[in-house]
Amino acid sequence: MKSQFVAPLTNALRYGIIFDLSISEMQMAYKLLLLLSIALNVISQLLIKIGMNQTGAVDLKGDISGSVLKILGNPLFLSGALLSVFSFVPYAVALSKIELNVAFPVISIGAIVLLFILTVLFLGETFNIYKAGGVALCIAGILLIFR
């Protein structure tokens, strides 16, 4: 399955077939794939959260089978789950050229920062000085890792 979807794109990017890119442009293309993976992951998490808000809280003390069926019947939840799976494709392609000890922290921290901002702006989640400080430290970490 991996080779069917990821290998052709990886080879095309690796050899510059798609856009006839220089080495520095190729490195930028892989970084952009990481950013695409972050964006897809964040959108998927937002869809899952909105879907769960529509579904309502799951009571873990009782019979959860009805709640699970309700969750799986929510189109926003399902869209988010599917998009989450697809967000790994550009990440996998980027991993073919970017070191894991760079790529994983960047997508993890990038998703944390972007999710924090979007959930505060659009979902009304809490914002305080401690969370803002944490986000600032995350951004500083990304800048240090990506150098």
Question: Mind explaining what this structure looks like?
Answer:
The longest helix has 33 residues, at 23-55. With 147 residues, this protein is mainly alpha-helical. Helix 1 crosses helix 5, helix 2 runs antiparallel to helix 4 (75-86) and helix 2 packs across helix 6 (100-122). It is 78% helix and 0% strand. It contains 7 helices and no strands.
Secondary structure elements and their pairing?
Blueprint: H1 2-14, H2 23-55, H3 65-72, H4 75-86, H5 88-95, H6 100-122, H7 129-145
- Our measurement of the CA-to-CA distance between the termini, rounded to an integer number of angstroms, reads 33 Å
Tally of discrete structural domains: 1
Structural class category = mainly alpha
Elements, N to C (H/E): HHHHHHH
Radius of gyration, in angstroms, nearest whole number: 18 Å
Poorly predicted tracts of residues: 15-19
Percentage of helical residues? over 70%
**Oligomeric assembly:** single chain
The shape is: globular
Number of beta-strand segments: 0
Number of helices: 7
What is the mean pLDDT?
A: 85
Largest sheet: none
Strand fraction band?
A: under 5%
